[in-house]
Amino acid sequence: MRERLLDLGRSQVGEARGTGRQLTERALTMHCAAYLAEVKSRLLTAVIFELKSSKDSLAEGLSEEQQQRVKLDALVSRRTEELERMRSRLEAEERERSRLQSRLIQAERMHALGALAGGVAHDLRNYLMVVSCCLDDLPPTASVLVPDAQEATAQALRLSAQLMDLGRPPKPRLRPTAINAVVARTASLLAPSLPEQVEVRLALDPHEPEAPLDPDEVQQALLNLCLNARDAVAPRGGFITLATGTQRIAEPPPYAPESAAPGDHAWLRVSDNGPGIPADHLGRVFEPFFTTKEPGKGTGLGLSQAYRCATAHHGWIEVQSTEAVGTSFQMFFPIQPSSPR
Questions:
Q1: Can you spell out the DSSP letters for 289-301?
Q2: What pLDDT is recorded for position 274?
Q3: DSSP secondary structure letters along 53-92
């Protein structure tokens, strides 16, 4: 019995020692795990801190680069704007130079031709006056050709008057004038001289534009343009369109006179569907005595008178033409009196 108790006690002590050893190993394992977790956490925190510091440094570097780029872009933009302004000024100066040169050449040409034509016309008029007086003194029964001679003399006197006008500056008598009324009167005067195959169309501005004009001068210019259009379309038939309107002009064209100014303008346009004007003739159509008609069918003074009429009113005349399509002449007149630029 005593030996059994001793054996039982020894076995219980051994079991207790084994259990204590297991508890100690488990505690040591948990302690190591906690330590490793803490070390891992600290390492992870350090790595995150380093990464964040590197990111901040990189962001700061990028920010400085971006600032330099913004400054460079602003400098390039300013320089580009300055160059654009310089280019615009140069283009404006070139346009002004071309305008002045064109106006000077045209003025010198018109002055020379006008002086020459005026001198010739003065002498011619004196001779024609003698012929006219002699014809008037003849009795009607002297010859059946006297009326024809008187009519021819009257036409020659009118032509000499036009020639003399080229040698002196025009002085239009301005008064408020309804543009549509001038066109309507001109169409009535034109109608009897039109062949059946030529049609006149009106496209008048319903707002009835008015401008300070010399209605007689403008009507004569408009009639000259219409007669040219009639001669262009008569051989094969066609139409002549008379149109009116208004337009705000920001800057007069280079070929406008010096007295032309920006502002509201009334315009008259005569267009046809005739054969058109050759491109190499467009630059000369307003020269006195220049004509594309056959010899004996034109004096070359109609378009010149229209040009002088437009410039005398501080306006200008434009021409557009396409061969086999037609021609358009457009006269611009300031609605308000202009002052020289």
A1: T---SPTTS--S-
A2: 94
A3: HHHHHHHHHHHHHHHHHHHHHHHHHHHHHHHHHHHHHHHH
What is the C-alpha end-to-end distance of the chain, expressed in Å? Answer: 145
Residue among 246, 256, 197, 198 nearest 226 (CA): 198
Pick the more confident residue, 317 or 13: 317
- Alpha carbons 29 and 26: distance in angstroms, whole number: 5
Q: Which amino acid is at 45?
A: T
- Average pLDDT of 4-33? 57
**What's the chain's length in residues?**
341
In b/e form, how buried is each residue of 155-172, taking b as 16+ CB within 10 angstroms? ebbebbebbbbbbeeeeb
Rounded to whole angstroms, the Cα distance separating 292 from 299 reads 10
Mean pLDDT of 311-323: 94
Give the mean pLDDT of the chain. Answer: 79
Q: In sequence order, what DSSP letters do the residues of 178-226 get, joined into one string?
A: EHHHHHHHHHHHHGGG--TTEEEEEE--TT--EEEE-HHHHHHHHHHHH
Torsion sign over Cα 104, 107, 113, 119: negative
> Are 273 and 133 a contacting pair, CB within 8 Å?
no
Under the banding of pLDDT at 50, 70 and 90, the label for residue 126 is low
What's at 238, amino acid-wise?
A: G
Q: Which of 269, 271, 270, 265 is nearest to 210 (CA)?
A: 265
What stretch of H or E contains 283? none
Q: Hey, where are the domains in the chain? A: 172-334
Give residue 317's pLDDT. 96
Task: With a cut of 50, say whether residue 13 has pLDDT above it.
Answer: no
Q: Which class in CATH covers the domain with range 172-334? A: alpha beta
**pLDDT, greater one: 310 or 111:** 310
